[in-house]
Amino acid sequence: MEPTPARERTCCIAVCTAQRPIMLRACLASLATQHVAPGWKAEIIVIDNEQVPRVAGIVEEFSRNCPLPVTYVHEPRRGIPFARNRAIETSLERNAEWIAFIDDDEVADADWLGAYLKVATETRADVLHGLTKYNYPPLCRKWGLAKKPGRRRDGDRLVCASTNNVMFRTRLAHRSQGGLRFDTRRALTGGSDTAFFYSATDNGARIIHVADAVVTENVPEERCSYKWRMKRYYRCSASSSSIAIQRKGYVRAALRLLPRFAWNLIESLAITLILPFLLIRAEWFRKYLYKAGRRLACALGILAAYIGKLPTPYERIDDH
Question: Where are the domains of the chain?
């Protein structure tokens, strides 16, 4: 009697996109070369998050020469949480065991999927989070932004993750398991992925770092201006603080956030007072001007969360 062949495990790779056709092409091209380990099958799902479909032609052209199955899905409700939830629903319809997310402005290393599938085969973890490398233009390096390799080690346990480079078990999204979804109230403010994975770990999910699952993002020059960077610190602080309030309540969150608010504000003011004395060295002046602005932006972000006035950076999408 012939042995019954082992059932293949399925992983869906989701790319949510809006107004970035050039970057999307590069992202998809990097996915076409991924190696799928024996015993696994993979499918690429592209979620077009525009009221009027824009990238159907790009996806159709890509699918003709891609060795992996490719599915195009239109999600007209504007906002990344809607697109991510649509990707989850599509993966559940296909009975996928895992779903991976990569941002449309990133490219995956050749072994990206292979690294994830290897760990998924060997571990009982619920969420796998990879490494993101950033290529900065000269303007960003002027501010000292060229990020050093992360301190996380392969296999480190994490308390949270983000969807720019992640893979997780779809059982987290099954209605029978609590049915986790991305918070659509954060469509314009951001932070829905942070809230999602905090909810997962609050309910016992295990997240580990996969150092070999690498994606690369080429940072546009417009994201390196002082103004843009400070706005980013402000909105990230506001978003993370609002999530802390949502999880812990105003009083418990204040025990952590108010000391942080005070420290950031005091440090910003102290650095500002010494800035005139640093004009003798342009490098020193830039470094501490940036640090003072960052501290102030973080303090104001905490304040914004407490008064309920979150910034809405995703009303406009940059890049191309």
Answer: 9-222, 225-315
Average pLDDT for 255-271: 97
Q: What is the pTM of this model?
A: 0.92
For residues 79 and 148, the answer to whether their CB atoms sit within 8 Å is no
Query: CATH topology for 9-222?
Result: Spore Coat Polysaccharide Biosynthesis Protein SpsA; Chain A (3.90.550)
Give the integer Cα–Cα distance in Å for 47 and 72: 6
Quote the pLDDT of residue 1.
40
Tokens of 302: 């905490």
Closest by CA position to 210, among listed 150, 148, 155, 151: 155
Mean pLDDT of all residues belonging to the chain: 93
Find out whether 275 and 205 touch, Cβ atoms under 8 Å.
no
- Residue pair 262/255 in contact by the 8 Å Cβ criterion: no
User: DSSP code of 249?
Assistant: -
What is the tens place of the pLDDT at every residue in 170-189?
A: 999 998 877 999 999 999 99
Q: Residue 288: what residue type?
A: Y
Residue 42: strand pairing partners: 11
